[in-house]
Amino acid sequence: MSKILVLLFLGIFFTSNVFAEKSHHRGGAEFLNKEAYSIKADTSLFSSTAIFDQDGKDQALADGDSFTMLDANFKISYGLSPKIEPAIFLKLRSVKAQNQSFSESNSGPESLGAECKFLLGTSGRIHYAFGVHYLQTLYTNTVYSNQISVQPDTIILGDDGKQYGVSLFTTYNNHPWKVDTTISYVSPPNNLSSEIDYKFEGQYFFSKLSLLGGVEGIYSLESNKSVQRPWQARGPTNIFNSYNRQTVAPYIGLNFMFDNVLLSLKGQSVFSGQSTDKGNLIGLGLSWSSTGITEDSKIINSFKEYHIEASVLKVSARGNFIKIDQGLATDVEKGAKFDIYQTDYFGGNILVGAGVVYDVGADWAVIKLSKKFNEINIKPGFAARGY
């Protein structure tokens, strides 16, 4: 199954450039543009080093015991509007456990779910959003009458059932810093205790690289009153079928932007908790998104009736002033608006920038550039169209 997860992951990566325009790291309260979509794939490998009991005391694994869990997550988000962003997601999982008497593994689809986020508003550099989510596991665990009945050579994929939750997202953006927080109320599957899930992350951006660090975890609301949980084949781990589980897991990582793909690397350690496992996690992620409808694209796609057709003669060293071959003789006046296009003999007609007339003569005018729509350098010979 692990080979299947890797192949699916690589397949999405190598086909991404076919439909991707731009990808970037978005905070939880930063939304896609309208009609944009985002596709994210990530995988993580967790290895247990010890278990935490119900009182939070860590206990070393017995000799010969081990537990590993490989997850692959796929998520597709869509910009329904600048303030509404629905998404669907799928998790695949492969687990392996062993002790002195057996070695067993289990793999397959783990859960399928959906979420929807709503932008609440902004205050200065802070964005606020609210979200709801629901998921359903794609398997059902066997519940045994007592411990003796549990099959020793089987292991469950996880906690079965449905999960729902509500979340509050905040994103503070002050380049090159970004601070992201998520607080969620979650009702987990398998009749586990209700929880408060949290995540606090800080990120520092360079040109294409960003470094990040944070902590995420679970705080149990301890709604399970019965100490005895149903008997299930969970193997040598406390992650599944736990009792009022709690975790504290700091992490560090980096994001790297190349072409249209964002590569994410993450290292994490669960160092504190109760009724769960102590251990380490490594993660790898890829994501990309389309541009959708932006204010710039509205300008580019809007119809304009141009009255003046000119050619670019010169461009200043810094590219912010452009001299064209039309002036007062053809009714060009100060303050007139112009769009600058890259044209070619093959019908290319790309809107590069926009500006207003700064100075004008009889047969020339100087345009001060006020907007760039892409990274194309304006050169002599480009078309300047006035309206």
Give a verbal description of the structure.
- Residues 1-23 have low confidence and may be disordered.
- The chain starts with a helix and ends with a strand.
- The longest helix is centred in the first third of the chain and has 18 residues, at 2-19.
- It has 2 helices and 20 strands.
- The strands form 2 sheets. A 12-stranded antiparallel β-barrel has the order 1-3-4-5-6-7-8-9-10-11-12-14. Strands 15-16-19-18-17-20 form a 6-stranded antiparallel barrel.
- By secondary structure, the protein is mainly beta.
- It has helices spanning 2-19, 295-301; strands spanning 37-52, 58-60, 66-78, 84-98, 103-123, 126-137, 162-174, 177-187, 195-205, 209-220, 246-258, 261-270, 272-274, 276-289, 308-315, 321-324, 337-343, 349-360, 365-372, 383-386.
- It has 2 domains: 2-289, Beta Barrel (Porin); 295-386, Thrombin, subunit H (Beta Barrel), CATH 2.40.10.340.
Describe the structure in brief.
The protein has 387 residues and is mainly beta.
At CATH level 2, the architecture of the largest domain is Beta Barrel
CATH superfamily of the largest domain: monomeric porin ompg
How big a fraction of the residues is strand?
A: over 45%
Q: How many β-strand runs? A: 20
CATH topology of the largest domain: Porin
H/E series = HEEEEEEEEEEEEEEHEEEEEE
Largest sheet: 12 strands, antiparallel, barrel
The main sheet orders its strands as: 1-3-4-5-6-7-8-9-10-11-12-14
Count the DSSP helices.
Answer: 2
Dominant shape? elongated
The CATH class of the largest domain turns out to be Mainly Beta
Q: Give the distance, in angstroms, between the N- and C-terminal Cα atoms.
A: 61 Å
Mean pLDDT across every amino acid position? 89
Measured on Cα atoms, how large is the radius of gyration? 28 Å
Class derived from helix and strand content? mainly beta
Number of domains: 2
Low-confidence stretches: 1-23
Relative helix content: under 10%
